[in-house]
Give the backbone structure.
Amino acid sequence: MATLKSTIAETLRLLPKALIVALLVAAPLSVVQSVRAENTNIIEGYVKKSNGSGFVLLVGLMRAR
């Protein structure tokens, strides 16, 4: 009986800590689900593409083999 009582007491002692850990893990997940993200307003800047760099990398990688 003493073992059963000590097991129950230890479980009840650890229960609040386990609940706090579960809340810390579940809180970001619940926040992410409530965020409404839309892809209609995307702010992008002009990006100038560099020409010819892919070919230079390809030749360099082929020589490295």
The radius of gyration is 29 Å.
